[in-house]
Amino acid sequence: MSAASSANTTRKTPSILIAAAGEDDRWKEAMVARLQDANIVTQYENYDPKTIDFALLWKQPQGLLKSLTGLQAIFSLGAGVDHVLSAPSLPTEVPVIRLEDAGMADQMVQYHLYAALHFMRDFDIYARQQAKADWTQHDVARISKCRVGVMGLGALGAAVATALTQLGFAVSGWSRTMKAIDGITTYAGAETLNEFLGQSDILVCMLPRTAETEGVLNGNTLSQLPKNAAVINAARGAMIVEADLLRLIDTGHLRGAFLDVAVTEPLPESHPFWDHSKIRITPHIAAATRIEESVDQIAENIDRISRGETPRGLVDRKTGY
Ligand code: NAP
User: Fold this and answer.
1) Cα–Cα distance between 230 and 170 in angstroms, integer?
2) pTM exceeds cut of 0.85
3) Residues 253, 276, 284, 317: which is the catalytic one?
4) Is 284 marked active-site?
5) Would residue 307 show up in a list of annotated catalytic residues for this protein?
6) What is the pLDDT of residues 194-251, one digit of tens each?
7) For the segment 76-134, what is each residue's pLDDT rounded down to a tens digit?
8) Angle value at C-alpha 317, between 89 and 221, nearest 5 degrees
9) 36 closest CA partner among 299, 316, 305
């Protein structure tokens, strides 16, 4: 690694640190192939923390950021940045940049088409019938009568909402600021949440985890959903108050849930979600970061920063996403 100059000087040779929760070598290999003249190290190698310009992070060890005093930017190696913003040692002035789509939108679309059809075509009911060798047939609902509400219309939520519309669902979306997406009825802001929920037979959560969205799906809000509505959450577990979700399923207000995320991950063995006949669980696999696409985005953003331009995917520290 070169003995780099001071933190704010634009460097010809950027020094990059990777801390990627066990995937460090794969990320390093891809970054080295993409940025051949950069100094790139993983957290497990010897490096001088003061010389690091850019940190590429996924679930980094506690305290790592404290020693990186020359950082020009922090990159999250995922769409979410909650793992970075919650770090106590996060420097206040350093820009945090997230991945936008980076191959995840296609996977999110696949996950949600499957999960929405699971409820729309009664596969949840047929799974329970199979356990009892029950051959009862049910009428097939019209897809255009099945209303899906997508919370969060960002890089991933908008792709999911559009794909569900194309399949024939009646889709609406809810976001912080108003969006216009072809074929989708949109709502914005907390004051429209109840109205949006009241017409969502299937609710999809594609929100980022922030101070405002934590626990947004609780006993009060989930009760606004129509009777027999289903919930799909592949965003973050913290958006749902799990005990409230369970209660509303058990008391019959909600039909069931399809969950990729939980408050505690891995989901503890004793957690009631595992055995629940109305809950489907997947182990946080809805959409994985694709390294090739991500490395391109990161390299382009490093170029932008070195030219004094604003990077794409810059996180707003105030809103938290
Ligand atoms: P994004 O582009 O940042 O979009 C976030 C959306 O949520 C935006 O539409 C935003 O509204 C809306 N929003 C934020 N705060 C809100 C609030 N308080 N009230 C109403 N709407 C609000 O995020 P993304 O890339 O689509 O990703 C969404 C989340 O998916 C990530 O944060 C991550 O946690 C999760 N994720 C999960 C997996 C998995 O495998 N399970 C994989 C990737 C990502 P505006 O449009 O008005 O800004």
Assistant:
1) 15
2) yes
3) 284
4) yes
5) no
6) 999 999 999 999 999 999 999 999 999 999 999 999 999 999 999 999 999 999 999 9
7) 999 999 999 999 999 999 999 999 999 999 999 999 999 999 999 999 999 999 999 99
8) 110
9) 299
